[in-house]
Write a structure and sequence with these properties.
Structural class: mainly alpha
Number of helices: 6
Strand content: under 5%
Largest sheet: 2 strands, antiparallel
Oligomer: single chain
Helix content: 55-70%
Strand order of the largest sheet: 1-2
Radius of gyration: 17 Å
Shape: elongated
Order of helices and strands: EHHHHEHH
Distance between the termini: 41 Å
């Protein structure tokens, strides 16, 4: 079964945001990603229906989650990047996120907390999908805006550690 999403390991500097055909190029094409999500959702729905018909209860839960995941992409991925109530603040926070990456402070905090890897599957923004560096910087901007993004609790703990 194809794993949706991936993990980011700061020390190894590796990321696999989407390994199921999503466009993560520098010139991200949101419409193309949504079109891919529609196709992937249809496949997941067929697999879900088949699993239900065959009584494969262990697979029903997995395909139900996949269908919901693609529904989320299709319905709500409309934010270009993290916004702020204070003009320019989100951009500053985003760029500071890059500084934290390049200064090794995130890795040091991750090591102190004993977190080997953390998920980069949760949606932060469309711009966050362009590269691992932009994902972390957009996540930091969201963190600084006080957003609570389900699934990024370990990353939020790392940010807490860096800023204490």
């Amino acid at each position: 079964m194809v794993k949706v999403g991936g993990e980011y390991n700061i020390k190894a500097k590796t990321i696999n945001i989407f390994d199921d055909g999503f466009n993560t190029s520098e010139s991200i094409d949101i419409a193309k990603n949504k079109a891919i999500a529609v196709e992937k959702r249809a496949i997941a729905q067929r697999n879900l229906d088949f699993s239900k018909a065959e009584g494969w209860t262990d697979m029903v839960g997995q395909y139900t989650k996949k269908v919901a995941y693609y529904d989320d992409i299709i319905a709500s991925r409309v934010r270009g990047n993290v916004a702020s109530k204070i003009p320019g603040q989100a951009a500053y926070n985003h760029e500071f996120g890059h500084y934290l990456q390049h200064s090794n402070k995130l890795y040091e905090a991750q090591k102190r907390l004993g977190i080997e890897t953390f998920s980069v599957e949760p949606y932060v923004s469309d711009y966050a999908l362009t590269s691992h560096g932009e994902y972390i910087s957009e996540a930091f901007a969201a963190y600084m805006e006080g957003e609570k993004i389900k699934g990024l609790e370990d990353l939020w703990r790392i940010f807490d550690e860096v800023l204490k």
